[in-house]
Design a protein that fits this description.
Layout: H1 13-17, H2 28-40, E1 44-48, E2 51-58, E3 67-68, E4 75-76, E5 82-87, H3 94-99, E6 102-104, H4 106-110
Antiparallel strand pairs: 1-2, 2-5, 3-4, 5-6
Organism: Glutamicibacter bergerei
Protein name: ATP/GTP-binding protein
Length: about 120
């Protein structure tokens, strides 16, 4: 008889108390966070003369709306890779900063002016 590579089920009382429909034992919040990072990308922290910024790349497949780039004031059309940026050191917290995020062309973000 060939050997099986599958682990054997234990027949103890702990195995009987577990139900099959209980689902995964991972924390649901951690799984949602992982799925969000996989879908939207990981935000990187960048230091600049005007403060710290979270910068996230948006792939062409995930770019589904039209935005106006604050650097050149031209539209970023659906299907065009771009960056999403928001302040990391916003005075009223991360939620307010994320609400004020902006979509930039990568070249416009790299060549932006720090003059006020």
């Amino acid at each position: 008889m060939p050997r099986s590579n599958r682990p054997r089920r234990s027949s103890g009382p702990a195995a009987k108390s577990r139900s099959r429909s209980a689902g995964p034992t991972r924390d649901q919040g951690a799984e949602d966070d992982w799925m969000q990072r996989a879908r939207y990308g990981v935000a990187k922290l960048q230091d600049a003369p005007d403060g710290q910024w979270h910068v996230r790349k948006v792939s062409p497949l995930n770019a589904q709306k039209t935005y106006t780039c604050p650097g050149c004031h031209r539209p970023i059309t659906p299907g065009v890779a771009h960056l999403v940026t928001w302040r990391a050191d916003h005075w009223s917290g991360d939620e307010a900063a994320a609400g004020n995020r902006r979509h930039w062309h990568p070249n416009c973000w790299e060549s932006r002016s720090y003059r006020y």
